[in-house]
Amino acid sequence: MDPNTGHPRRWGILGVLVFSLLAVVLDNTILNVAMKTIADETAGLGATQSELEWAINSYTLVFAGLLFTFGVIGDRTGRKRMLFIGMLLFGLASLASAYSQDPMQLILARAAMGIGGAAIMPATLAIISNVFPPAERGKAIGVWAGGVGLAVAIGPITGGLLIEHFWWGSVFLINVPIVIVSMILIAAVVPESRDPKPSRLDPVGVVLSIIGLVALVYGIIRGGELGTVASAEVLIPTLAGVAVLGLFVWWERRIDHPVFDVRSFGNVRFSSAIGMMGIVFFAMMGGMFFLTFYLQIVLGFTPIQAGALMIPFAAAQLIFAPLSQRINERFGAKLSATVSMIVVTLALGSYALMDQNTPILLIEVIFFVQGAAMANIMPPATTAIMESLPREKAGVGSAMSNTVRQVSGALGVAVLGSVLSSSYRGQMEPALAALPEGVRHAAGESIMATMAVVQELGDQGRALVQPAFTAFVDGMHVTALVSAVIGLLGIAVVARWMPGKARSAEHAEQNEPVLTSSRG
C-alpha cells in the first residue's frame, strides 16, 4: 500500500469500521433511555441510583483502563485480529447483560462489555490512520465521527422502541446481530496491519490505573449515597484512589514503555486538545445522566418519547461533524474550539433554568445547539491528537484520547450524579420525616427511590410527589451549574493553549519529532 495514496478499498474499509463501532456507541446511548426501567422493581431489576451509576461506570472504567494496553497489543499482534476478538467479547458480554438477574450481575456483565469495547475502539482509529493518506485522514475521521453521531441519534429512539415492546434486556440483546454482521464484514474486507516497532506492555500501569480509578469513583459515588463527604466510607477510598493514581503517574514517568505516556502532555497541541475533550465529556456524560430522569419522571414522557426527544442533539452532530474539519481549517483550531466550548457551556448552564413547565420546543432547540457545538469540538480535537503522534503509533494515540474521554465521562457521571443525589437528599429530608428511618434513608437517595415508596404507599404517598419533583429540579439546577463551571474551565484551556490558525500542518510536523524522542 502506497502511504501517499492509501489503501485502494479504504472507503469501504471505513464503512465496515463505522458499522463495527455502531454496537459500542449504540449500547451506551440506549442504556440512558433504559435506566428508569432497570430501576423499576417490577419491570426491571430494582437498581438504585448508585447501582445505575456503577452499571455505566463499570463498563467505562474497564474500557478506559484497558484501552491503551489493547491498543499496544493490536499494534503488536494485528489490529484486524484485535478488532475481531473485541467484537466477539462484546457480543458475548451483551448476551450476559441482557439476561442479568440482579444489579450486581448487570454491573459485572457491563464490565465484561468494557473489555470488548477496549479492543474495538483503538483498532478502528488505528486502521483508519493506516489505510488513509495524511491528506484524507481528517475527512475520514470526520466520517467516523459522523458514524458515531448516527449511533447517538438512533440509540435513544431504538432504546425507547425496545423498552416499549420488549423487556429491558432487549437493549443489550440488540448488539448481538450487529456484532455477527460486523465480524463477517471485518473478516472479508479489513486488511491486517501492525506497528513495525511496537511498544512493550505495562501490566503494572494497567493494574495501578484501574485500582486508582475504581477506588476514586467508589468514594465519589458513596459520598452521593450517604449525602456527606465527612465519612470514613467516603474519604478512605477517595484518598486511596488519589494516592494510587499519583503512584501511577510516577510509574509512567519512570519507565520507557508506559501504558499511558504522561510525557506526551508536554506537547501543547496534544495536551490542549485532549484536555478540552476530557472536559466536554465530563460535563456531557454527567448532564445526560440527570436529563434521562428529568424527561421521563418529572416531565412524564415514555421511554420512546424520551428517546425521540434526544434526536435533535444527535441530528446536529450528524449534520455538523462532517463539516467540522472545514470550519477548523478556515478559522483555526483555537477560534472554532473556543466558540464551540462557549456554546456548550451556555447550553449546560441553561439546564439550570428548566423546570416542570419548560416548553419542550425550547428544550429541543437547546439540545440541537449543544449537539452542533460538540460536533465542532470532537473531530478537530481527535485529528489534532492523532497528528501529534507518528503514524505508526496510531493505536497509542487513539487509546490515549479515548482513555481521557472515558475516564472523564465516568468521573462526570460519578461527580455530577453525587452532586444531584446529595442535593436531592437534603431537599427531601423534611418531606420524608414521617417515614420510618430505614425507609426514609432509602427513599431519599433518588427520585426513583421516592417514586417506588409512593407506589407502595398508594394514596398516602401522593403528598411526596410534588416535593420530589421540586427537589429533583433544584438538584438538577445545582448539577447543571457545576457542569457549566467545568465548561468554563474548558474555555480557559482552549483559549490559552490551543494552537491558532497560523500553527497548522507545518507546526504539527515540527512537533512530531519532539513526541517521538520523548517516547524513547
TrEMBL record:
GO terms for molecular function: transmembrane transporter activity. PROSITE patterns: MFS (PS50850). Pfam families: MFS_1. The chain crosses the membrane at residues 12-34, 54-73, 82-101, 107-128, 140-161, 167-189, 201-221, 227-251, 272-297, 303-323, 335-354, 476-495. Residues 13-502 form the Major facilitator superfamily (MFS) profile domain. Gene3D superfamilies: MFS general substrate transporter like domains (1.20.1250.20), Multidrug resistance protein D (1.20.1720.10). One of its GO terms (cellular component) is plasma membrane. It is found in: Cell membrane. The keyword Protein biosynthesis does not apply. InterPro entries: EmrB-like, MFS, MFS_dom, MFS_trans_sf. Keywords: Cell membrane, Membrane, Transmembrane, Transmembrane helix, Transport. It is a multi-pass membrane protein. Its main location: membrane. This is EmrB/QacA subfamily drug resistance transporter. The lineage of its organism: Bacteria, Bacillati, Actinomycetota, Actinomycetes, Streptosporangiales.
